[in-house]
Specification:
Layout lengths: L1 E6 L1 E2 L17 E6 L2 E7 H8 L4 E4 L3 E3 L2 E3 L2 H6 L9 H4 L6 H5 L5 H17 L2 E4 L6 H10 L17 E4 L5 E6 L2 E5 L2
Parallel strand pairs: 1-5, 2-6, 7-8
Antiparallel strand pairs: 1-3, 3-4, 6-9, 9-10, 10-11
Helix pairs in contact: 5-6
Amino acid sequence: MLTLHRVRGVWASGDGAVPSGTEAGPGHAVVVDGSRFAAVGPYEELFAAYGERARVREWDGVLTPGRYERDAVALLESAYWPDPREADALGTEPLTGPALAALDMTDTRWGASARRGVQRLLAAGTTALAGPFTRPAVRTAVARSGLRDRPVAPPRAGGEADFTVLTQDGTCLATAIGGRLVYRRR
């Protein structure tokens, strides 16, 4: 399936920040065909070439490579991401150190924590992370998420369609891995 993503700009860096000088007007787009970028260029040209066959998504942000999370092992294997139903007792932020040691951490609980942590990473625009993960439940959660274990590449024709769309203040609007939206801000 073809998807034409119309954005305010296309930026090739993957550090998770939108530069203040980024083009802020309409006119930029990428075409995603399955899991790959088919084209990157001016919206009008891409719409003329693909518009009748493509689903069009419009984002009020800048399309960038997703974030590469170098601290993923610490975030997912050395922290507990509380379930929202535990917020009254444990809060909403990750628990580490003595607070983590006080919990009864089974494989099931590690897996659920990792899934919640992965969701937070996707909501921050992460498309790739550093491993390796030693806990089987965490490894499974990461593998099922689609997150990749390597640095991200800039958007280019033929490249993997891993990207995030960020507002000017850095808020993540959408995250896609292999052309599939895995997070969309509501």
